[in-house]
Write a structure and sequence with these properties.
Strand content: 15-25%
Radius of gyration: 18 Å
Distance between the termini: 47 Å
Helix content: 25-40%
CATH superfamily: Glycoside hydrolase/deacetylase
CATH class: Alpha Beta
Shape: globular
Order of helices and strands: HEEEHEHEHEEEHEHEHEEHHH
Largest sheet: 8 strands, parallel
Structural class: alpha/beta
Number of helices: 10
CATH topology: TIM Barrel
Number of domains: 1
Length: about 280
C-alpha cells in the first residue's frame, strides 16, 4: 500500500485526527474517460467520470453541504455545525465541460474552475489536453459554476519578474471579466506553492489584494480553518485512486498531516538550491 494512504488510514485516522470542523476544498483537474497518466497515484491529476460521480454521491449521502468558493469567507466567520465542502478544478480542460459539468448538474452542486485566460480559444492545449472555449465557459457560468483566474499562461510565477507576475494576475482577471461580463474575485496559484519563501508569499498576498482578488487557493495540502488567510487557502488533491474509505479519510482530516512533510521537503530543497536574489522579483 502507498505510504500516504497507509499512514492516513491506519495511523492518523485511528489516532482521532478525523473531524469535520475544518472545511475541505477539493482540488480536481481532469475528468477523463481514459486515465492516461503513468505516474504514482499520489501525483495523478485525473479522475474518471464514474469515480467523480461516486465521490459526489458520497458527499450527498454523508450529509455534506457543497458551497461555492465565494461563500467560504462568510462561512469561516460564522461556522455552524454543518459539514461543508468546496469543489474546485484547475486548468479548465474541455473534459470539465463534457464530463464533470453534467455530473455536477445532476447533483445540483456548485464548483469553481480556474482557467489560464490567455490560452483559451488560442488553439492551445495544456499538458496535452484540450482546454474549454469561451463559449463553453460562458455556458457553464450561467449555472452554478464560478470561474477564477489560473494566471494568463499557467507559468511558474516564482521564476518571473515582478512586472510579469503582476501582469499574470491583473490581466488574466480583466480578460475573464470581459469575456464573462461579471466580476472575478478568485485565483488559483499554478504549480507547487512556494510557502517556504516568506518574502515571496508576502509579496504575492499584497499583489493579489491590490489586483482585486478576495480569495485564493494553493496546492498546500490540508483543510481550511476559520483562522486561515483567505488568500492562502489549502486544498485536498483528489484523483482516480481515492476510493470511498480514502476519500472520507481526506474529508475528515486524516490526510492533513502530509502538509508538515510537504513543507519540510520544500524547506530542504530551498536550502540545497543556489541562493537566488528574491528581491529581483519583488521590488
Amino acid at each position: 500500500m502507498r505510504p500516504d494512504r497507509a499512514l492516513s488510514l491506519f495511523f492518523f485516522r485511528i489516532c482521532g485526527v478525523g473531524n469535520f470542523k475544518k472545511i475541505p476544498i477539493l482540488m480536481y483537474h481532469s475528468v477523463t474517460e481514459t486515465i492516461t497518466q503513468k505516474v504514482h497515484p499520489y501525483y495523478c491529476t485525473e479522475i474518471s467520470p464514474e469515480t467523480f460521480y461516486c465521490q459526489l454521491e458520497i458527499l450527498k449521502k454523508k450529509g455534506f453541504s457543497v458551497v461555492p468558493l465565494s461563500e467560504l469567507p462568510r462561512i469561516q466567520k460564522n461556522h455552524d455545525n454543518k459539514k461543508y465542502v468546496v469543489i474546485t478544478f484547475d486548468d479548465g480542460y474541455e473534459d470539465f465541460f463534457k464530463n464533470a459539468y453534467p455530473i455536477l448538474k445532476t447533483f445540483n452542486m456548485p464548483a469553481t474552475v480556474f482557467i489560464p485566460a490567455e490560452l483559451i480559444d488560442k488553439g492551445k492545449s495544456l499538458d496535452g489536453k484540450r482546454l474549454m472555449s469561451w463559449d463553453q465557459i460562458r455556458e457553464c457560468s450561467t449555472g452554478s459554476i464560478e470561474f477564477g483566474s489560473h494566471s494568463l499562461i499557467h507559468g511558474k510565477l516564482i521564476d518571473m519578474h515582478r512586472d510579469q507576475i503582476r501582469n499574470e494576475l491583473a490581466v488574466s482577471k480583466e480578460l475573464i471579466e470581459k469575456q464573462l461580463g461579471t466580476k472575478i474575485n478568485s485565483f488559483s496559484f499554478p504549480y507547487r506553492f512556494p510557502e517556504e519563501n516568506p518574502d515571496f508569499v508576502v509579496f504575492l498576498i499584497k499583489l493579489l489584494d491590490s489586483c482585486g482578488y478576495s480569495i485564493a487557493v494553493t496546492t498546500i495540502i490540508g483543510r481550511v480553518s476559520n483562522t486561515d488567510h483567505h488568500l492562502l487557502l489549502k486544498r485536498l488533491p483528489v484523483n482516480e485512486y481515492d476510493d470511498e474509505e480514502f476519500f472520507m479519510a481526506k474529508l475528515a482530516g486524516a490526510y492533513d498531516w502530509l502538509h508538515s512533510l510537504q513543507h519540510l521537503i520544500k524547506k530542504a530543497r530551498l536550502l540545497l538550491k543556489p541562493k537566488k536574489n528574491i528581491e529581483d522579483n519583488i521590488k
